[in-house]
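Entry 14. Structure prediction run on the chain below.
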Amino acid sequence: MFQFNINPVVNTFQAFYAAEFGAKGIILYSDPADYVIDGEPVYPDGIYLPGTGTQRGTLYIGSGDPQTPGYPSTDTAYRHPEANLTTLPTIPVYPIGYDDASVFLKRMAGNEVIDSWKGNISGITYRYGPGFAEPDDKKRVAMKIFTHNEVATAWNVFGILKGKVEPDRYVIFGNHRDAWGFGAIDPSSGTAAMLEVSKAFGLVKSKHGWRPRRTIMFASWGAEEFGLIGSWEWNEEIAKILNERAVAYLNIDQIVDGRYVVNAESTPNLKKSIYAAAKKVKDPAPSGDRQTVYDTWKARCRDGTNPDGTPVVNTLGSGSDYGPFVQVNGISAMDFRYIADYNTSPQGSSYPTYHSVYDTFYLVDTYYDPGYIYYLAGAQVMAELARDLADSLILPLDASDYAAAVKGYFEQLRDGDIGQRMLQEGLSFAGMGSAVDNFTREAEDFHRRLDEELDLKNVLQVRTYNDQLQKLERAFIDPLGLPDRPLIRHVVLAPSSKDSYASEKFPGIVDAMFDIDNNPDPNKWELVKQQLAVATFIIQSAASTLMEVA
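Output returned:
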């Protein structure tokens, strides 16, 4: 049995689900419903995916080297035998364009699919199958795929601007450089921006002798497209050092995959710092009240604004190199890019030629950013954010914003369908609510002391307050990890177990509650109780890290 799937970016678990239900192989294709706007030209006459476009990507469901889970992939590492790995697909998978897919789909047998499953290939009635409509035994699909697994070397490359006062505190600025195809947008737009930022900092140092207070590290990651391997293995290899020294990680994957508005994602304590940086950079196309990057972001934010009028900063999922910083070591992180107007764009991809051979310099230079003014603005925002984090006397990390976010996540959980079902089962949120209140109170008191009691000339006192701000994120790490995901360790924020690009709040509870009423396991509710207790403990631990250091 073969399975034809629409939109290969959606779910890295496709090969595993298909194999579980008996499929012998998968042919993936990108449907024009997700990658083309009716009547708009396709590449090279426009930005949309032509019928010959095939999207590549990994179907490995983990992160890091699959043979060394939890440990760095060094020469002396123990490597699990390939036959024992459960995170690699066991059936062949092949991507094709929608022109080729139409040859198969127009011959499919079976009932017509539901509306939400229908694509937009002209003249096709989308059917479930199985098999072909014409009863001809000679019709077969043959897949010939010539691949092999091997241990190879991936390289991370670093540039370091050593801090003048606190060289043992690191602000890390990273981008991956490997690509599926030419990769002009993903990742080379981010690579170009990072290189220009590093060049600018280098020029300031060489011409004026300036160094930031803290060290800035520029990281070019290898093998991101294979499963965040370069950044993940580095995080595992020097975890002890990063736990003590890392201030924050700033990620650029694509700096521009549209020109409409900024999209920022981060841990909650970086939100105000991102706002501050965006307010200092001139908008690439100013108009009326929109004079800065922040002004346009506020006016056009796709997710609206907060009650105080600030633009929404989303939480981090996965799919890029911030993942291991947050999930392995509890390091505050963010990701930044310009995006298209999602109201007038295909919904299936961040940009239609994503991970295809049509992601070219011509595409960027002709359509996405002629003149590179959005590249410049995005790079300037990231440069200012890096400077702020590296050079401010007091770290611009806000514990109160984190506490407010955690309180909001808690209320959404408690008052939503999951929380109501837990209450029906007799579980109580009183302990978790108390921990959230304690965290909120301690965060507010911490910032009061920071404003009223800190002696800015007392270097040890400054260092103490900064250490508390820097290490708050570490408090949300559970060394045992999440249920069935021991290498994902952040209890408050983690990638969804159902969609690795999305973020989940209190993922241990959400995962334990998934489809619980149809789960025959009698211990399932015990797992829910356990994860509720873990979340309560972790939040209370975070509160304790902000107390006076007595």
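Confidence is low (pLDDT under 50) at residues 1-10.
Filed with the rest of this week's runs.
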